[in-house]
Design goal:
51% strand, 7 strands, 85 residues, 5-stranded antiparallel sheet
């Protein structure tokens, strides 16, 4: 099992939907994930951190920093939702 380093002060945004504007240019609509915190790093073991803004949590080996986030309300790691273009 790996360890995820969570930045409790950094929220996560995701692409909610795509739309085409009046000029025919495709745009995306981003939205903030409620109660989210960014996973900054995945490690095999913990090291000393500033516990006022960082947190270690256990995670599956398949978790990465680009497609998952930490949900502060449920204290779980979740997949970031993605809209199809």
């Amino acid at each position: 099992m790996a360890k995820a380093l969570i930045d409790l002060n950094c929220k996560v945004w995701y692409t909610q939907s795509y739309y085409t504007n009046d000029a025919g240019v495709q745009k995306k609509l981003d939205e903030l994930l409620d109660n989210s915190a960014r996973i900054c790093q995945i490690e095999d073991s913990e090291f000393d951190i500033n516990t006022t803004s960082l947190l270690w949590v256990d995670c599956d080996d398949s978790v990465d920093t680009h497609t998952y986030y930490y949900d502060k309300s449920s204290s779980t790691i979740k997949l970031i939702p993605h809209a199809s273009p």
